[in-house]
Structures are given as C-alpha cells and as structure tokens.
Amino acid sequence: MTQVMGQAVKRHEDIRLIRGQGQYTDDMKLPGMVYAYIVRSPYAHARITEINTSRAASMPGVVAVFTGRDVKDEVGLIPTAWIPPDADLKVTPHSVLAYDEVRYQGDGVAVVIAETPYLAQDAALAVDVKYESLPVVTDPFEAQKDGAPQVHTDIPNNIAFHWKAGENLDEIFAGAEVVVKQHFRQQRLIPSAMEPRSALAQYHAAQGELTLWATTQNPHIHRLLMSGILGIPEHKLRVIAIDVGGAFGSKIACYPDEVIVSWASKKLNRPVKWTETRQENFQVTTHGRDHVQEVELAGTRDGQIQAIRVKTYANMGAYLSTAAPGVPTILFGLIVNGAYKIPHASSEVLGVLTHTTPVDAYRGAGRPEATFLVERMVDLYAGAVQMDPLKVREKNLIRHEDFPYTNAFGLQYDSGNYQETVSKALQIFDYPAFRREQETLRKQGKYIGVGFSTYVEMCGLGPSEVAGAVGFQGGLWESATVRVHPTGKVSVFTGASPHGQGEETTFAQIVAEELGIPVDDIEVIHGDTAQIAMGWGTYGSRTTAVGGAAIHMANEKILEKARKIAAHKLEVNEEDVTYDSGVFSVRGLPSKGVTFQEAALDAYLAWNLPPGMEPALEGTAFYNPKNFTYPFGAHIAVVSVDPETGDVKLLRYVAVDDVGRIINPMIVEGQIHGGLVQGIGQALWEGAEFDNQGQLVTGSFLDYTVPKARFFPKFETAHTETPSPHNPLGVKGVGETGAIASTPCIVNAVMDALRPFDIQDLPMPLTPQKVWQAIRQAQTKEPAESK
Amino acid sequence: MASQRIPVTLTINGQKIVRDIEPRTLLVHFLRDELNLTGTHVGCDTSQCGACTILLDNQAVKSCTVLAIQADGSEIVTVEGLEQEQLHPIQEAFREKHGLQCGFCTPGAMMLGAYLLNHNGPLTEETIREQLDGLLCRCTGYENIVRSIQRANEIMNERQNAQQAARATGVG
C-alpha cells in the first residue's frame, strides 16, 4: 500500500488561501448588514457617572446606540469555564458592557451600530462618557498586598484563587547541601494573531435562530457558552469559524463582543458585524503569561536535584477569562519539575486580579512558564555546584527505562527517550569545539554563549475524566464522522477546529492511508456546529492526538463494514478477505477483487447487502484519550552579546524534538519554526507594559516587538520519533513545543555569554538596554567585589 | 462631509473600475468593501503588518496607507490578480515550501514576494530576510516564506527557460 502518512503532502487548505479565497469572518457580507463599533474605557479603573448617547444617535447612518444598562438585564455574564477544585475560586462578574465600574483600559461601555464601519466609528467618538477615576493596581505581587486597590469589591486582596499541589518540603530544604533561590518575572505577552477578532451575527426571527460567524478556536464551546449567555437554545444556535487567521490561545475565550453583536442582531433584526482594530486587539484580546515566581531548588553538591518549590503570583487581569484559571495551575503547577527525576516538588499559585487586560492561554499556556523556571534553575544550580549545565541535565533527566514515569505531582509521562534527543542535538552541535571557540573569543573581548533546554510538556488535552477532576467545565474528547459517498469520495467532519495547523491535510492523510484511497479524494470539514455534531476545538496541541485518533476509529468502522460488503459480493467468508491498496480480494486469489469505490456504491444502492446490514457507508467515532501526551526534546542556542551595545544576536538554533509519530513532516517543521519564533520573541523582544495608571504603553506593533524575519538565522531542526502509547496513532503534539522550549534556551545562552561579568539572571525580554546596563553595572562594581 | 463623493478610475487586476467614493476611503477598504476583493487583509492600523500589501503601479504598497482617491489612475494588482493561465510562481512556491499556515498575512507576503521577483535584486536568504521587514507573520517563523520566495524565483526561471526552449524548437 502506498504510504501517505509520514509524507510531506502539500496542504489542501492552501488551494484557496493562496488565491485570496479564504473565508475569514471579516470577509463575510450579508444583505442589510450593519456595523458595530464598541466604545471602550480609556481608564483602567473608574466609575461611570454618566453616558450621553444622544449626539451619537443623531449622527448620519447610525442605527442604534446601546449602553451597558440597555444590555445587562437581557443577557447573562461572561462565564469562567475552568474552575480548579480546592482553590477557593471566586467568580468575577463580567458584564458584556460595563455600566457602573470599568476595570481595565478597554472595558466596553457602549456600542454604536451604523450603516458603514466609518460611520459607526464617527458616532462612537461622539458618545459622551463621564468617568470618575479610581486607584489602579497592575502588578500581581502588589495587588495581593493589604490595602491594594480592589478590582472587585468582594474579592479581598484581589486573590481570585489559591491553588496548591505537592508536599511540604521544609525539612528537605533545611537539610539540603545546596539550595538555589531565584525570583523570575515571566513577563506578560500579547498573542498578536495576525487576524484581528471579528464576529458577525444574523438572527432569523421567524425561526428564533441565530447564526454567528466568529474568530474562534472552539465553535462548539462557543455555542454552549453563548446559548447560556443569550438564552437561545443550543439547537437554535449555529457557530461558524471556517478560516481563522491565527489564534495561539487568544481565540479560545468567549468575549463580550460576540455577545453584543448577537444580542444586537436580535434586537435590530439585521445582521451585525464587528471587527476589532489592532489597537483593540492589543487592549482587549486576552494576553498571556505574566507571573511573578519565587523558585527554590535543593540538590547535592555533586549535581543531583532533590526538590523544587515554586510560589507563583499569576496576574489574571481584571476578570477571569474562559480557560484562564487552569493555565497557571493545572497546565503549569503540575509540571514545574520538567524533564527531570526530581523526587520532591511543590507548587503554590495565587491567581491575582489587577486592572489589566484579562490573561488566558497563549501558545504553550502554563508549560512555557514552568519550563522556563526549571530550565533556568538547572543552569543556576549547575553554576552553584560548578558543573557543566549539560552534565547536570544528563545526570537528572528521566531515563528511557523509567517510562511510564510518574512525576512528583502524579502526572504520568507516557513515553520518551530524552537522552537520544540530547545525543542527536550534540551530533549537530559540536559542544567541545564551541567551548574552545568561546574561550578564544573571550580573550579578544568577544562574548558568545550557549544555552540548553531539555524540555518535556504535556499536551493532547486530554482525558475527559481528568478534565472533570481538574475543573475544566467541558469534556476533552473529540468527534469524527467519516462519510464515504456513493462514488467512494470522502467527507471528513471533525470537532477539532484547526486555524493554520493544517489538519485539512493531516486528517486527509490519515484517511487516505487507512482507507487506501487517494488523498485528493478526501475533504475535511471543520468549524461549523450545524455540520459537526459536537467537538471541543483546537488548543493544547490536541487536534491530531485526539481529533486524529477519532478519525482513526471512524475509519476502522468503515473498513469493517466495507469488508463485509466485499465478502458478500465475493461470496466468501469475511475472514478470507484481504484489503490492500484500495482493493478487497480473496486470500490466495488476487485476481478477484472489489474496489473500495465499488463497496461504497454497493452500500448506497443497497440492492444486495449482507442480511440485516443498514445501507450507506459512514463511520462516526468519539475518542476519549487515555491520558495526555508528553512531547520532549533538546534545544541548543548560540548567541553573541555585544558588550558595547548590549545587543544579543542569535547565531544558531538547534531543535531536536520528539513529537511522537510524524504524519506530515513539512507541517511539523512549520509548527516548530513558528513556535520557536514566538518563544525566542519572549526571551529577547516581547513584553507588554502598563504604566502606573494601567495604560497599555505597548499598544501597537510600533511599541510591542513582534519578531521579524531578519532577527533569525536558519533553524536547524531534527527529530526522534517515540510513539505515544496513549492514542492509536502514536502521535503526541507539536503546536506548542517550540514556544515552550526556546525561551529558557535563549536566556541560558545569553547568561552563558555574560558569565565573565558574573551576571546571574536578567528579567526578560533581554533588550540591548537591559543587557548593556547589566554589563555596565557589573563592570563598575567589579573592583569592589574582587579581592 | 461624509456624503460628499468623488469619482475614481483605477485598473484593478486588469479591469477598469470607475466608482464614486467617499474621499476618506482607504484603498484597502475600497478593495474589500466596494469591490469584494477580500483576499487583501487588514491586520493592523499602523502600517506595520503588511497583510494589506498590493502592487500599485508595480510597487509593493501597503493599501492601508493609501487613500483610494490617491490611487486614481493607477494600476493595481491584488492577490486575486496573481493567477493568469496558471498559478503565479509565488503562489505555487508558497504551497510547495509551506510558506503559509493560517493564511492571513499570506496575500501580503505573496504580493511582496511578487514585487521582489520582478525587481532583479539579489534573492539570497539574507537579502530576502531584510526585504521582509515590512511583513509580520506570527505563524511560520518566516523561514519557509524565505524558501518560498527563493523557490518562486526558480519556478519563474524554469518557466522562462521552457518558453525559450519551446520558441527555439518552434513549438508553442
């Protein structure tokens, strides 16, 4: 049989995308459509004392102006859908439009609806809102102190939840030979998907039905949540997301804007579209990361790590966004030991509210924050015990024979050969030669450094029982319907919702391989709740591990039925029928055969089916994964630092990843490249900043550095393939690995370059200014400290 | 003020277009909203991202920085105009080298690529990375965009050579 899985099949989705024929939400146009523009608070914290809409309402082309008071009794609040248990979580009431108090810059207060987008924006400027400004807090550590300004009056010290895992480690730390302590600021990031969010709602009054086109990663979750918020029954609500222009976690959440257009469409009985500006995307679309971390590591003098203890202040922003509480707890706190055999561990997380944009998942979601701290701690510990950071890693990595490995928090890592990825990376990168070159260059006043990151992450979200146990308010299984048409062509319906990851192709490869039919005979349909019964969407690198496994199961059902049909036609027992390259034939009699297409036609004609068999040929499966999957790898970065300017230049980047079985190597490489650039972006350039009044000062692409092409060398990527035993395809997940592994790798490399200056740590992003200042400070204090 | 309309005449993807428009209409909105050429995307409001890049009189231009009336009399090519009898080399190469993921910046990236192909500059990895300064892509990490532009150049040369060979042998 021709091998389709494992091949770099060109992407199906590209056929429309390279012609400019994608169907992004903002491309939609409906007859009678009007446009919404949302008036937003310029203050991070203020009381609304008056809103006067009369001037705006009388402007040309304006259809309606609504305020929070118009909406509040007609729709529900924006919910939080991840409630970690035993964490004393407090719900943060989030109105779709604020009517008494605004809690971050960008909180919506009114909506203008007009005949054109320009007229809506004109009129929005004429909505007169009077505010009385209130005290602001933006830093999570400051916000949880007594006397800090309150974000929600009934949530004392702004602590939205308090989550703990692991054991008391006081005794171990007291008795440890070596203890390393470090404070990390895991800065806030702005996801910056290139497509701004958009929503278009059309209410059909006669049927009481609403269709919502929206930029979402999870249309069925949206349907479920929106049904509750809008009071429209789920079967009368259709959510469509065909092409979504990147998301990286920022299009998981249920946002007020989508509710506003839906409600307004019903109110006005016209289609209403809203598309955010990039400025709104910066201010309102969820941000990521933002931790203050206090980390301690205990170990022996000869490099054996014994325990890790982490206390984190996680900035949640002004409201708890849809999936937000799960990110710094379950997806972070349980994996702070990384890829190492650390027998004892503890995590404590305070989820703290501030007057800032709500935070939710951003590529990696929790796992980059965990990987960063453990990979940095390993380097700091190596420094403390005067060992090579690679030696310390090799000494502490979980070994191949330890799998399945249960970490100190009870997570069971599925499979791995961590040493093999390290060996492979060292085949590409000559470490001893690098150290010699580094020594030579240092003597010439030139500084280069190497950083390692030997990571593991958990993805393929996830077993539904675990989802329930950890408070995720949904299942995490996935659905697939594989529909064979009478001609043998196939439509695949998946509940996952890819938006750039290429599963229209990957999934077609799985079907082509397993059904033995050409890959071009298969079309993958996603992102429409009217066509797909149910599904949980695309995030947490789950699409292929969970959604792909569902397709595999549906394929099995089809093959089983088609085989019966073929056996009946061939007048032999089913057991005597073999299937190869699209033809069922009788064992030992290869000349007699029934093609897959013939079996399909027979199934539909139903003139002569085996007794009792239903007509048609279609398989539906719901796959609930056994466990998470655990991709891993070894990354190596080489940087130079210019001591005169503080400029960091990335010279080489070697990434050896094991993402389980690879279905399309071209797509896998693309996912890794994209992740690397985002992770390296965090290390070197990206960082959201609010001033002390809660104004986002990095509110545009001029002020927030999304990396550009010229910042990077060519990446050197390689793979090992350790199948996951947790799903029938053996796949793990690749969407987030690059972003998870690369950030500490780069920081470790910069710190290695700065070793002669005795600089232990610098807060990200490592901008030239920060690096230059650190070098200057080190040089001026050097005489005082050296003996 | 808002109702005052001004006539513009442009050639877009080889077709003459005459419309009366509001003077403040940005070219990108004119393309998307008036002409339904929604392949050109709006990714930002500060002319940083390049998703709206088009060819305006053979120059790569961000159509969000140009008023439609400023483009009066000019010739414009958008992503919808790239394909002639066959896919443009840049389209073929972007698919072959996986130069796109979500596809949102892609029309702009391809128009910029098409511009680079037609301007006879060196197309080394380094020069292409420099030339991509006006483009933000959050998915690909750029490496495959660079490869795509280099591959497009090869495809263009291959097609030219094939044409020349066909002419030389008197075929086609």
From TrEMBL, chain A:
Domain Aldehyde oxidase/xanthine dehydrogenase a/b hammerhead intervals: 19-135
Cofactor: Mo-molybdopterin cytosine dinucleotide
Highest taxon, organism lineage: Bacteria
Keyword Oxidoreductase recorded: yes
Keyword flag Repressor: no
Pfam families referenced in this protein's UniProt entry, alphabetically: Ald_Xan_dh_C (PF01315), MoCoBD_1 (PF02738), MoCoBD_2 (PF20256)
The protein, known as: Carbon monoxide dehydrogenase
Organism of origin: Sulfobacillus benefaciens
From TrEMBL, chain B:
This protein's record includes keyword Disulfide bond: no
GO molecular function: 2 iron, 2 sulfur cluster binding; metal ion binding; oxidoreductase activity
Keyword Metal-binding: yes
All copies of domain 2Fe-2S ferredoxin-type, residue ranges: 6-82
InterPro entries the UniProt entry points to: 2Fe-2S-bd (IPR002888), 2Fe-2S-bd_dom_sf (IPR036884), 2Fe-2S_ferredoxin-like_sf (IPR036010), 2Fe-2S_ferredoxin-type (IPR001041), Beta-grasp_dom_sf (IPR012675), Diverse_Oxidoreductases (IPR051452)
PROSITE patterns: 2FE2S_FER_2
Pathway: Alkaloid degradation; nicotine degradation
Keywords for the protein's UniProt record, in alphabetical order: 2Fe-2S, Iron, Iron-sulfur, Metal-binding, Oxidoreductase
Protein name: Carbon monoxide dehydrogenase
Lineage: Bacteria, Bacillati, Bacillota, Clostridia, Eubacteriales
